[in-house]
Amino acid sequence: VNARIGISKFPDDSEDVESLIKFADIAMLNAKTKGKGKICFYEKEMSKEIEINFQITNCLTSAISNNELSIHYQPIYDLHNKNTLISAEALLRWKNPILGHIPPNKFIPLAEKTGHIFPIGEWVLNQVCKQISLWKNKYYVVPPIAINISVKQLEESEFHKMVKSILIKYNVNPSNIELEITESVSSGDTLTIVKNLKELKRIGIKISMDDFGTGFSSLSQLDLFELDKLKIDKIFIDDLVTVSKRQGLVKSIISMAKSLNLMVVAEGIETHEQLSYLRKYGCHYGQGYLFSKPLPVEDFEKLLLQFSSQTLAMYKNYGEKR
Ligand code: C2E
Ligand code: CA
Ligand code: CA
Fold first, then answer.
1. How many A from CA of 233 to the centre of ligand 3?
2. CA nearest 212: which of 248, 254, 176, 162?
3. N or C: which end of the chain has fewer CB within 10 A?
4. Does any ligand 1 atom lie closer than 6 A to the CB of residue 91?
5. Is residue 196 a contact partner of residue 159, using CB atoms and an 8 Å limit?
6. Does any ligand 1 atom lie closer than 6 A to the CB of residue 124?
7. Which ligand is nearest to the CA of 146?
């Protein structure tokens, strides 16, 4: 048996019974977020947080119809091949006229709680595929674009059908997109999740395990989800240079991934020192502010132009040699 306890104090927090009970409730909800067996005293900030979350949730309802969402693209590079662009990650941005810019780390968890993640996730898939198809017409070659998928979406039995129909709608090849899932898939409805992933893999979509090392994943499950890539979370990269234990950890993650035939991406690379450690350990790919921040479409297109002319020149050379 477990308990979470919320406490409010008379007369500091309030002098009327109703408010005291409400505040104790709010403190209890806060205790819940901190884990099992926690006790929380009410603080004014807790009400503010609830109020803000309430506002965000309200505004989220009309974010799509009001055109408030957009997608930025962050390039991912080959760390061993003169920093060649190999793919990019699609990252959601939301600007609301009242609340301003709200970071995805703030609104995605709320969207998952309230179910808004379903229309939003579908919007992202549509938007990215539409963009790929536009880019293909303009630049001919486009690297695979990785899309973040919430575990809630993967728990929908029809998810794979939705993805397939969007690919058909925009005439996009399955190899043009990749899906990033997180370790929370391990604690979800694994039967449905595995079914969805199998169907999507069957048609040629690659799957990455995002934020690897931060969540709850057992090694046996790496096998179960038939992954292609593993993304090492930024927290391991942050103190890679200064904490020797981290070096051992990152080195072992990379060698483990390699022995499982997985490609490895390091996230959040910000310094040249971090980069040289990762190169030394044989990490395949990298993403981070050292290379580029997530870019709006117009700026990412400049990279695409370069990428497509390099790739087309390579094809041409190859053809001439033959
Ligand atoms: P994530 O999937 O781990 O994405 C990487 C995050 O790290 C992005 O934050 C990116 O801007 C940031 N980042 C990349 N390189 C660096 C670096 O060198 N330094 C620092 N400080 N940060 C770096 P962002 O865009 O704020 O997204 C946060 C999270 O929101 C994402 O984490 C992802 O979990 C979620 N998210 C974003 N877009 C979507 C989406 O379309 N669907 C779902 N379900 N989740 C999304
Ligand atoms: Ca991601
Ligand atoms: Ca990540």
1. 6
2. 254
3. N
4. yes
5. yes
6. yes
7. 2
* Cβ proximity of 303 and 295 under 8 Å: yes
Place of tokens 């893999």: 201
C-beta of residue 2 within 8 angstroms of C-beta of residue 39: no
| Residue found under tokens 């309430």 | 54
C-alpha triplet 71, 77, 82: angle, nearest 5°: 145
Closest CA to ligand 1's atom 35? 104
What element of type H or E holds 231? strand 229-232
Which of 91, 101, 240 to probe ligand 1 with, by most ligand atoms within 8 A of CB?
91
The pLDDT value recorded for residue 82 is 75
| Strand, coil or helix: 318 | helix
> Which residues touch 86 (CB under 8 Å, ≥6 apart)?
76, 77, 78, 143, 144, 285
Going by pLDDT thresholds of 50, 70 and 90, the confidence category of residue 188 is confident
- The answer on pLDDT for 218 being more than 80 is no
